[in-house]
Amino acid sequence: MALKSAIINVMEMAAQKAGRRLNRDFGEVEHLQVSRKGPADFVSSADLKAEKIIKEELFKARPNYAFLLEEEGEVNLGDGSGRWIVDPLDGTTNFLHGIPHFCISIGLEQKGEITAGLIYNPVTDETYWAEKGRGAFLNDMKIRVSARRDMKVSLLATGIPFHGTPGHEAFLHTLETVMGEVSGVRRFGSAALDLAYVATGKYEGFWESNLKKWDVAAGILLVREAGGSVTTFDGRDQAYETGEILATNTVIHGPLTRLLAKTQTRKPA
Length: 269
Known about the structure:
Largest sheet: 8 strands, mixed
CATH superfamily of the largest domain: Fructose-1,6-Bisphosphatase, subunit A, domain 1
Strand content: 25-35%
Structural class: alpha+beta
CATH topology of the largest domain: Fructose-1,6-Bisphosphatase, Chain A, domain 1
Order of helices and strands: HEEHEEEHEEEEEEHEHEHEHEH
Number of domains: 2
Distance between the termini: 55 Å
């Protein structure tokens, strides 16, 4: 059984408390108060309530840490010893449509790098967590990335830009190219869970651009601690900073990097 550190216990308790609130709201999803933030970018009362719970719980445990929150932004500048990176509801659109595929993501950033991360799926009660140098876990079980070596039998995940946003046509060209080389591509609507699934070997790889730090902070650490690779599409170690993510089981990282590079240089007619 994996022995969780004090910091992971703090993160897990905050996520589970917020998760119970999300599950109650999910049961009454048709009654939620919903507003529009922007094109296909919704915020619900459930999202805000979950963020408030997580912030309160984490602040009680570590009052000297700063926060980067999806809804509230930068708050509590702290003393520089740590910063929580929080997405209280990744997969908001799924949640609002009654699709049970969403999660809470919490990362701890210290001196510019993520040192601890946790992704909690309240529907399945699954907790994915990792600490730098200690490995990655699903609940109490150690997890590893997939060992598949052949692109032809690899299953990938991605995120599709919403119609009308920049890069939509270019993405469709990339998708068509990648689909011709792999077993299949999935789009489930939660980048954090996609990264958790790469870490557990469900997917061989995941790629997406224009992600925010709260989408990927915990997931990047999970994949790396599970033995995988995370870079930008062209192989740079700047995925967290840029929001351009290519996460794989390491074995297919080179071939997939080259495949994505080919689609960036040859644009659709």
